[in-house]
Write a structure and sequence with these properties.
By secondary structure, the chain is mainly alpha-helical. The protein contains 12 helices and no strands. The longest helix has 59 residues, at 26-84.
């Protein structure tokens, strides 16, 4: 089934009220400012949405294949060092160094994925089994959660892995912070007796919200009355109105007053003169709806940007752009390629046991 076109995919019409600062009322100027702000927000959100789609495709096409190749080559290098441990040309001191290298490689690979083959090699070269290390880490995490964070870990029913428990603890901590904030705000609200001005302001806000809802509904009904495709016998016109009705319904469902007004302009149901003639009360209702739209667009934009700024190894600049993310991504790709090339070279060179022995003379066992 074909999806209706997004309102972002159609030309943006500026539905501001004509006039200068001296000729427009305060409400009219605010309306115009909101329209311009919404236009910029929609364009910025569209830019980020398109970038996110392209970025996700790049991750799948460019990043992940290198990650897979790098892991495969690291495992091959791991097996190479494992075989070298039995080589008769290595002395006891050299085997100790190879064992240290093996432990580093195993730790690196286990961080990515607890593969059974790697776990087996871990247990071969470690004084403590992987299962025992996992249990020790779980005990530490549970103790910290209980004694420091005050979280009842007995409620956890997930798998017995540190990674899963850590994710569950994060969720509990976020929930606790949210509950605490709500309770704090609620307590403050209960303690503070509402003043007459506060009651009047809340009443005006409630009236504006109700008026805004009515205003959106009225614009929607006017559009429906003209566009209903069932009243059209011409097939071409029926198809056109069906598509427009999809956009109308989409905008109405989202409470998108700006989109509905733009459709009215497209259909010449209204013009700049009609907007200039809006009563102040109706204009305030429109402003209330447009302010809500602006906040919603801001939240949607922030949600997308946060997906990138919380990622590892990315320092968030004061004003981040898709270009900043792309540059960081390109650097990550290049670093991965360099790392893969280095591991491939190491694998080729260490095939020669004599080269390995020579390299081990410069190697220092970590503490």
């Amino acid at each position: 089934m074909t999806q209706p076109p997004s309102l972002f995919d159609v030309p943006i019409l500026i539905v501001g009220i004509p006039g200068g600062a001296k000729t427009l009322t305060r409400a009219q100027r605010k309306f115009n400012n909101l329209v311009e702000k919404l236009k910029n927000q929609r364009l910025e959100l569209l830019t980020w949405q398109k970038f996110r789609q392209r970025y996700q495709q790049d991750v799948a096409d460019k990043y992940q294949p290198i990650v897979v190749k790098l892991r495969v080559k690291r495992f091959a290098l791991l097996e190479l060092f494992d075989r070298a441990m039995d080589h008769k040309k290595l002395n006891k001191r050299e085997r100790g160094k190879v064992k240290d290298i093996l432990r580093h490689l195993i730790s690196q690979l286990l961080t990515d994925s607890p593969d059974p083959k790697i776990i087996q090699l871990h247990d071969k070269y470690s004084d403590t089994s992987y299962a025992e290390e996992q249990q020790d880490e779980l005990k530490i995490m549970r103790s910290f959660a209980r004694d420091t964070l005050g979280i009842d870990v007995s409620a956890y029913k997930g798998s017995e892995t540190p990674a899963d428990l850590a994710e569950w603890l994060k969720q509990q901590a976020r929930r606790a912070d949210s509950d605490s904030t709500v309770k704090h705000d609620s307590d403050k609200y209960q303690e503070r007796k509402k003043s007459t001005k506060t009651i009047e302001r809340e009443s005006r806000q409630q009236q504006a919200a109700e008026g805004g809802t009515r205003a959106v509904r009225e614009v929607f009904r006017k559009l429906v009355s003209e566009l209903h495709p069932d009243r059209e016998s011409d097939l071409v016109e029926h198809a056109r109105k069906t598509e427009l009705m999809q956009r109308v319904n989409q905008a109405y469902k989202a409470g998108d007053l700006l989109g509905l007004l733009e459709l009215q302009l497209n259909l010449e149901q209204i013009d700049a003169t009609a907007l200039a003639g809006l009563a102040e009360e109706r204009l305030r209702h429109y402003i209330h709806v447009l302010e809500d739209q602006s906040r919603q667009l801001r939240d949607e934009l922030l949600e997308i940007i946060t997906l990138f700024t919380i990622s590892d190894n990315f320092a968030k600049p004061p004003k981040i752009t898709p270009a900043d993310i792309q540059r960081s991504f390109n650097l990550d790709i290049q670093e991965l390629k360099n790392e893969l090339r280095e591991v491939e070279n190491e694998f080729d060179r260490y095939q020669d046991i004599n080269f390995l022995k020579q390299s081990l003379t410069q190697y220092r066992v970590s503490d």
